[in-house]
Design brief:
By secondary structure, this protein is mainly α. It has helices at about 5-30, 35-60, 65-80, 90-120, 120-125, 130-155. Helices cover about 80% and strands about 0% of the residues.
Amino acid sequence: MDGFLGIYLRDQLALGVVWRELARRAQRNNRDTELGAALGRVAAAIAEDVETFRTIMHRVGVRPNPVKTGLAVAAERLGRLKLNGRVAGYSPLSRFVELEFLAMGIDGKKQLWTTLRDLAGLAARLPDVDFDQLIDRAERQRAELEPFRVSVGTETFCVF
């Protein structure tokens, strides 16, 4: 399939791969903590969502663009080089930025499922795909991370 939907789906796949890689990195950076356990669950769910999305793309005849997906992985890795307030190592700002970016990605994924269901008409073309369940799943992922995002943000930015 060519056209705007194909471009949109390829771009969204690249973003999904970025969020998946970010979630895995965040989980590794917080292993052996309650946050790490939550991130592990969310990372696994995001990985499943990426595979679901790949299946949807295949079913509507859109082939992934390996160059675009590879560039997305490279961009995520380059993002690790940003300043975080420490010369070396993981900082509270790094933790917060990871959580903030994951929240944005999950919110975007919820919007993606809604767009595919309502605007692209894929609910009619793929009646066996439960877009409502995918939307609910994104909401659960977001809800799982939100208390940590708030707590880490408060600890990071609180200046007393």
